[in-house]
Amino acid sequence: MNKTTDASVHDDNRDDEPISSAEAASDDAQQHHQPLNELEQRVADLTEALQRERADATNLRRRHDEEKASLKSHVTSNIVRQLLPVIDNLERALKHVPEDLAGNDYVKGVQGVVKQFEKTLSGIGVQRIATVGQPFDPHYHEAVSMEDGDGTQEVVSEELQSGYQIGEDVIRHAMVRVKMQ
Question: Which residues of 112-149 are buried (b: 16+ CB within 10 A; e: fewer)?
Fold first, then answer.
């Protein structure tokens, strides 16, 4: 019985023949190489995740800045829209000053207030819309009346009420008369 047992043990030992040093080094390299590949993959994954987070943060900052600028423009437009009737009334008052009071200090003071309004509006980016002599543009002008003429192009002939804009955004359309030229 021992002989059979010894023989089977001996056969098992044949499968476990001594491993050469080159094979052992190769096995060690594979064992060390596998964790290295896993680490490299993990680093690549984390780097990609970090890049996505940075891109998201950059996009968030850009969107925030755009929304902030839009909100600022919107608030400015609302405030200016509320002040426009005051400016209109001051300008109307100056158009109807009697000739004998044209050099009066009071009238000069009102003119100074109007100039100060215009300078302040300009300082916050508000511009008056160009009207008289300009081609009619419904984006900027509101036509109140149309005069016949001998031309084919619609041109603003008179400004009835000033229009204002911030950049390309219209706060109030200019109220105008249009003539064909």
Answer: eeeeebeeebeeeebeebebeeeebeeebbeeeeeeee
Neighbours of 179 (CB within 10 A): 19
Using CA atoms, how far apart are residues 43 and 52, in angstroms rounded to an integer? 14
Backbone angles phi, psi at 173, to 5 degrees: -65, 145
Phi then psi dihedrals of residue 124, to 5 deg? -100, 10
How far does CA 180 lie from the centroid of its chain? 39
**Amino acid in the structure at residue 112:** G
Tokens of 39: 């680490």
Task: Render pLDDT for 110-160 as a digit per residue (tens, 0 to 9).
Answer: 999 999 999 999 999 999 999 999 999 999 999 999 988 888 899 999 999
Q: Two tokens at 7?
A: 């023989």
How many C-alpha atoms does 82 have within 13 Å on its Cβ side? 5
Q: Which CATH superfamily is domain 127-181 in?
A: Head domain of nucleotide exchange factor GrpE (2.30.22.10)
Distance CA 73, CA 167 (A): 9
Q: Which tens digit of pLDDT belongs to each residue from 118-130?
A: 999 999 999 999 9
* N- to C-terminal Cα separation, the chain: 126
What is the mean predicted confidence (pLDDT) over 101-115?
Answer: 92
DSSP 135: B
